[in-house]
Write the structure tokens for this entry.
Amino acid sequence: MIADFVRILRAADIRVSPAETLDAAEIFETIGFDDRSILKHALGQTLAKTEMEKQAFDEAFETYFRVPEETPPAALSDAMSEDDAGDEESGESETQSGSDEMSGEGQPQQAGEGGEGSEGGEGGEAANQTLTEMLQNRDMAALQAAMQQAASQAGIADAKLFTQQGMFSRRIMEAMGLADLDARIRQMNEGGETERAEQLKQGRAQLFEAVQDFVERQIAMRTKNAGRLLREDALSRIRLSNLDKSDMKIMRELIRKLAKRLASRHSRRRKKAQRGMLDIRRTMRANVAFDGNLFNLAWRRVKVERPKLIVLCDVSGSVAAVSRFFLMFLYSLDEVMPKTRSFVFSNRAGEISDILQNDDLEAAMEAALRQYGGGSTDYGVSMMDLAAATLDSVDKKTTVMVLGDARSNYGDPGHLVLKEFYERAGRVIFLNPEPESVWDTGDSEMKKLGAFCTHKQTCNSVKHLERVLDDLLRLSS
Amino acid sequence: MSKEKTARDAIEGLMAGYEKLGYVSDEQIATALFLAQQLEKPLLVEGPPGVGKTELAKATAEYLGLDMIRLQCYEGLDEAKALYEWQYGKQLLYTQVLKEKLGDLMEGAATLDQSMDKLHDFEDVFFSEQFLQTRPLLEALRADDGIVLLIDEIDKSDDEFEAFLLEILSDYQISIPELGTVKAKKPPLVFLTSNNTREIGDALKRRCLHLYIPFPDAARENTILQARVPELDKSLRTNVVDFVQKLREMDLKKPPAVSETIDWARTVVLLNMDVLESDFVKNTLNVLLKFKSDIESVESELPRLMRESQNPKQQNPKQQDAKESGAAAE
């Protein structure tokens, strides 16, 4: 049961390790099942380790520990007690039963009392009843237990998709003895007991509803996040220019996530360099002059290079979407990223580093696009602008990144300016959102521009972006 | 069933015991403490600054009658400062002494091989306990009858330090390459606190129980004030708590925490105030709020806040006064 609960937690996007599962088992042992609030606190403290996880945990705990142990779903109990009221009456006198059923529906209170009574009376001896008997006796506890058992037989723990709902409901019904019940109804019909058969049928329908409800809840619980994960995965591969407006939000979230992952991976490596330890060998060597008396201690240190990054992004038409996400990604990385200067261009280039420092990246991007986007692309002029602004500060530690489709409307592609960057900078990287097969077709000047790049590659999905930035960080640390 | 009984009893006992020491806990916190002791697991306490995370460890030490060792984390903290260090100076002196004595020792050794053999006969004291400078973590492991170890603000330390803590936290032992493994005589009760300035690694989280302490609700804050500032009169205490709770609802850079509420309550006592007057509140806002922009935004809202925090309870005529003066200020 713990394992099952843990599985549900995992589905709710809580990361639970096997060791934590063991801890949870230990907690069950120490605390027991009876004190719910303490159990909840205790499990929460062992299994959910962030605030977000805590919320998800609370939800999952409430759902999971309600279903098997507490009252059956209201719909079922109501429906069943109505049925019960009808059933009991019909046992006494068949002529009255029809009207009684009506009154049962009209007065839920009476029906409810009937339900309680029978539950208390028959809950214990439910084990070997057939489905028909349970329905006839309206034995709630037994039905509930049977449903649970049937559910685990049907393998509901493996349920993954909402489309499986019908199948699982059917399977559970069958495991509970649907065939038997059907046969019984037929038999009653043939035997002239139409009234009772009718009631059984109704009971069956209600049971079916209850089972469906149960299955739906179970599946919802188990698959809450599967869909989202699937979607995120798909989104990270999709071409950014094809992105739907509605996906933007998920996308931003995704980028934030990836950026965080990159940041944590690389911050580790960079910080390592800042540690100092006694370097015996160098100490010895440094103190030979003092006859081996160790005056100057030498400490082990690794120099950290903080490379500079200059980014030039095309924000005209087709490339805008990619640029946007690229910059978004880049600035989510400020933790580990060296100082970055960003420029955007269509016909003229302009620096947007400052506005991008703002918290509201989205608004900043909009502003930048309004200011610089829209014109027809002119690589030549834009490169000149970039050179005027930055060329002096470019040195061997600088990485220059250009993001664009290299389509310059048959104008000057600015490759000669790029050449100057190429000669001075450590690296020049050209990211082109177009696939390599269409480079150099039409007005694409990839050949000319590419000649002065250390590195050029296609880049049109978040996956690509991640890889590019990962490489960049790896080289810089 | 009996197990459950004892668990609940133990937890309630803990709550009562802590309250006697002036630390007001709740079921959540007490459960965590109970588990930490039962399972011998470190407890990672998170929450906004000033909700009593460090206080919790102190109270625990007092409650259990143990000593507490506190390790304050900061960026650049490494094992040399947290665990142990070789006393380089002493070692250098030792080599000097050794050099002088070397002539005497080597007497009678004709060849180089012989003198090397002789040298090897000596105990290797260079890396031994004598030159070992213990630091908080090692001290905690060496404590004879258990100890409360508080690793404060773990989020300020680096990732490597976190990784280095793993061995200590899961097995309560440390490997020192030159000496071997040091195992705790009695597992210390470990508290780690974090302000969440960065995400703690999964490996560390996995080994700990995780307790999140939020800002307290009005009732608990009231009890806390009662325990910490008993001089404060009851109705005034309610006013103070209401006002602070209101402040937390506002959009502030740093909402006032429990410690600030306590400070403010002390201020009220110190200045002998009978009611919360608008002027007084205005002048002492700097006790509660630590950013200029926060103070400014609260000042402009002050009349409304004063009204709202006192309106619900009008049975006290003094409050009525305060409310009027608030309105007048408006």
